[in-house]
Design a protein that fits this description.
The chain is mainly alpha-helical and 206 residues long. The protein contains 11 helices and 2 strands, in the order ααααααββααααα. Strands 1-2 form a two-stranded antiparallel ribbon.
Length: 206
């Protein structure tokens, strides 16, 4: 099993030995990163209706019950395993609250290990615009957001996901590759390609 760090390795060993406190420490260690993920990927129609803490709590309950299955895996990052559980919880929330509309609002793209909730261009543009020193006028910001969305829409969906995982969720290249089921070299190439295309658009914004 690939450990995320020395500290994680110690906590994992203690958790496998049955220490509930160690498993709790592991889950809390990643709560901040996973909270960013949920905020990025939850459908905007559900923002304000769905408590991010509730989504994580449900996912952590599932992870606690399923921890023995992770311990049996030959390889894999604990964080990526935990993130997949949170992602499945997001999919369940969308299906429960949006019903048939969920697939249109939040596409579920089939990959080798299952489904993932795609980070939409609108969500990425909103997060990116919030980090830029852009004018405060609503009309100007709306125009900039539209330009960023158009640039993101023009990207290959997998390139866009690499961008979301690396820059918004702050995953490493190795974690990104594991999440998407691709080689690290492929994730790195897609990341550079997406950055170059996006930079062209952002040049006109600064």
């Amino acid at each position: 099993m690939i450990s995320d760090s020395g500290e994680t390795d110690v906590l994992l060993r203690r958790a496998r030995e049955g220490e509930a406190e160690a498993l709790g420490d592991l889950l809390r260690r990643y709560s901040g990163r996973l909270e960013r993920m949920v905020r990025l990927r939850i459908d905007r129609r559900l923002q304000g209706r769905i408590d991010v803490a509730d989504v994580l709590q449900e996912a952590f309950l599932v992870a606690t019950r399923a921890f023995d299955r992770y311990s049996d895996l030959p390889t894999g990052s604990f964080f990526v395993w935990l993130r997949r559980i949170v992602e499945r919880q997001i999919i369940d929330v969308h299906r429960r609250h949006l019903g048939a509309q969920a697939r249109d609002a939040r596409r579920e793209i089939s990959i080798d290990q299952g489904l993932w909730t795609e980070a939409t261009s609108a969500a990425l543009a909103a997060h990116l615009l919030g980090s830029l020193p852009t004018p405060s006028e609503a009309a100007v910001r709306a125009e900039l957001r539209a330009r960023i969305e158009a640039a993101l829409d023009a990207l290959d969906p997998l390139d866009r996901e690499v961008l979301a995982l690396r820059h918004f969720e702050q995953l490493t290249n190795g974690e990104t590759a594991e999440v998407l089921g691709i080689r690290e070299s492929a994730a790195s190439k897609r990341h550079l390609r997406a950055l170059e295309r996006l930079k062209e658009v952002l040049k006109g914004i600064r």
